[in-house]
Amino acid sequence: METTGLVRRGTAERRRDVLRRLDAERDVWVSTAHPDHGPHQVPLWFLWDGRAVWMCTGATSVTARNVREEPRVRLALPDTFDVVLLQGEAECFPDREVAGDTAEAFADKFGWDPRREEGSFVYIRVVPRTVRAWRGEPELRGRVVMRDGTWL
Fold it and tell me: What residue stretches are annotated with the Pyridoxamine 5'-phosphate oxidase N-terminal domain (predicted)?
């Protein structure tokens, strides 16, 4: 990994950069686990509403099943140099019961509305409790930018 010339960002700049990426990015890696079946990781589309990450998946998917059994999840934006990791507890909402403004924002972002599909879907909401962000080795120290649900 090339780290020459990297300037270490402060916490406020990292927080700003994380929020920009949460607004702009489309995909997030979702890591769940099940007590009997073990870990599972999958990429999903996501929407950031300013407080929580919203994703959608089939109601009978492995991700939905795992979240119902073990709500603790980890999320990762798909960049191995500009790392953003979020940790929190997930909650499932049946597609017909999610708040209208959230469902509309999701549909607007992706051009796909799960509520109009034949199958049954769930929206998964994760309010982050911890967020870590770093670019290369120089930023490993100070990588926590949210702790206990509060931005630092």
Answer: 22-134
Contacts of 123 (CB under 8 A, 6+ apart): 54, 55, 56, 92, 93, 95, 98, 102, 103, 106, 114
Fold observed for domain 11-139: Pnp Oxidase; Chain A (2.30.110)
In this structure, what token pair is assigned to residue 6?
Answer: 């990297």
Report d(CA 152, CA 135) in Å as an integer.
18
Read off the pLDDT of residues 79-122 as tens digits, 9 standing for 90 and up. Answer: 999 999 999 999 999 999 999 999 999 999 999 999 999 999 99
Name the residue with tokens 């630092």.
Answer: 152
User: Residue 65: helix, strand or coil by DSSP?
Assistant: helix
Q: What is the pTM of this model?
A: 0.93
Tens digits of per-residue pLDDT, 26-67? 999 999 999 898 999 999 999 999 999 999 999 999 999 999
Tokens of 151: 């931005």
Q: Domain ranges in the chain? A: 11-139
Give the C-alpha separation, 44 to 38, whole Å. 19
The answer to whether 59 and 121 have CB atoms below 8 angstroms apart is yes
